[in-house]
Amino acid sequence: MKNEIIYIIGKTGIYDHEANAIMDEAEYLLRKRGYKVINPLRLTDEDKEWPDCIRTDIAAIFCSNAVYVLPNWKTSDLAIMQFNIALNLKLKIIFASKMNFLNIQL
Q1: Nearest 10 degrees: CA dihedral of 87, 90, 94, 95?
Q2: How far apart are CA 1 and CA 84, in angstroms?
Q3: Burial 7-43 (b: 16+ CB within 10 A, else e)
Q4: How far, in Å, CA of 95 to CA of 104, rounded?
Q5: Nearest CA to 12 among 37, 47, 52, 45?
Q6: Is residue 33 within 8 Å of 94, Cβ to Cβ?
Q7: CA-CA distance, 89 to 47, in Å (whole number)?
Q8: For the residues of 52-85, what is the DSSP string, one character each?
Q9: Alpha helices per DSSP H over 1-49
Q10: CA dist list (Å): 45 to 24, 54, 56, 62, 73
Q11: Gap between the Cα atoms of 26 and 29, Å rounded
Q12: Is the pTM of this model over 0.85?
């Protein structure tokens, strides 16, 4: 459903350029297909304290209808927390496999 707001769950980090590039690519591809996308990289800046970043991310999940879970999500404590919140909120969960992630099919 194209009017869904999708929050991207995956590994991120100030110095993890590869993980951040994967997150950005997912955002680009989802937007290209007409979805409203929340990329957690766009929600906070480097000056925010970690607890504030977590609060902002969690609030954004509450505004979402679905989550798009990147293959690297299990390597991040925050992504695991986000996944569990989405699961408990009974949001639509879409897993990106390692094989089809760049060819997003929703």
Answers
A1: 20
A2: 23
A3: bbbbbbeeeeeebbebbeebbebbeeeebebbbbbee
A4: 10
A5: 45
A6: no
A7: 30
A8: HHHHHHHHHHHT-SEEEE-TTGGG-HHHHHHHHH
A9: 17-32
A10: 15, 12, 11, 20, 21
A11: 5
A12: yes
Q: What is the pLDDT of residues 35-56, one digit of tens each?
A: 999 999 888 777 888 888 889 9
Interval 76-105: pLDDT, tens? 999 999 999 999 999 999 998 754 555 555
Rounded distance, CA 22 to CA 75, Å? 14
- Beta-carbon contacts of 68 under 8 Å, excluding residues fewer than 6 positions away, are 6, 7, 8, 9, 26, 30, 37, 94, 96, 104, 106
